[in-house]
Amino acid sequence: MSVLYETSGAVGLIQLNRPHRKNAINQTLLVELYDALERADADDSIAGVVITGKGNSFCSGIDLECFATDNLLNPRGDGHGMLEVFQSIRKPIIGAIRGYAITGGFELALNCDFLLADPTACFMDTHAKLGIHPGWGMTQLLQQAVGRPRALQISLTGEKIPVQKALAWGLVNEVVEEETLLPRCFALVEMMAANNRPMVQIVKDLIEVQDSAHLKGALEVEGRGFSDFASQFMNVG
């Protein structure tokens, strides 16, 4: 299994499970990730989802060995890519970041509602360095998280952003020790579970209203660009 899913109390825990490839993204991983997210969202006992990676990395981005053979745009054949799936999940999603979150893995993290990290975490956007068109929200979600000037610095240079800078720039909410990362994420979900569940959802929806129309249009432009770029290389049939 490329993705492991389990429940603990009110928490749905999703673990990317390709540690031998630093949890690099292929079609199978995306299918299993999307299925796990929707499974958690449909479970009334689950108040929130935590996504993390097995091994010493969160996610190293697209597995370039699979780029020409896998359908990463529409992996399940249902017309739903990463942005559509994450935006359809109504329950809060926390990203628990250990080690590298690079390029597509960075985008995966940005699609979570907020991030916690341990001291080993770091972030890189290497789209410009590798000549790969962004397609899972990098150009919009990163500037939403850290502001336009910092997003430009991160994406145009490809420099590594260590966890303390990520914390100072507002990319992550908290930095906690490795052994307490998942317990802290679980504790936050349990706090949400103890609140009025319908009102938690209402508040989440209201917070997301800001700039939603502009964001939707901008994400569509990015997505179309990625689709045109990827169709030159990958199997999208």
Helix-strand layout with pairing:
Blueprint: E1 3-8, E2 11-16, H1 27-42, E3 48-53, H2 82-88, E4 93-97, E5 100-102, H3 104-110, E6 114-117, E7 122-124, H4 127-130, H5 138-146, H6 148-157, E8 161-162, H7 163-168, E9 174-175, H8 178-194, H9 197-209, H10 212-230
Parallel strand pairs: 2-3, 3-4, 4-6, 5-7, 6-9
Antiparallel strand pairs: 1-2, 7-8
Which descriptors apply to this entry?
alpha/beta, 2-enoyl-CoA Hydratase, Chain A, domain 1, 6-stranded mixed sheet, 46% helix, globular
| Residue runs with pLDDT of under 50 for 5 or more positions | none
Question: Reading side by side through the largest sheet, how are the strands ordered?
Answer: 1-2-3-4-6-9
CATH superfamily: 2-enoyl-CoA Hydratase, Chain A, domain 1
Largest sheet composition: 6 strands, mixed
Tally of individual domains: 1
The total strand number stands at 9
Overall mean pLDDT score? 92
Total number of helical segments? 10
SSE sequence, one letter per element: EEHEHEEHEEHHHEHEHHH
Helix content: 40-55%
Q: What is the CATH topology classification name? A: 2-enoyl-CoA Hydratase, Chain A, domain 1
Oligomer: single chain
CATH architecture: Alpha-Beta Complex
Rounded radius of gyration (Å)? 17 Å
Structural class, from secondary structure content? alpha/beta
Q: Tell me, briefly, the overall form.
A: globular
CATH class wording: Alpha Beta
- Quote the distance from N terminus to C terminus: 24 Å
Query: Approximately how much beta-strand content do the residues carry?
Result: 15-25%
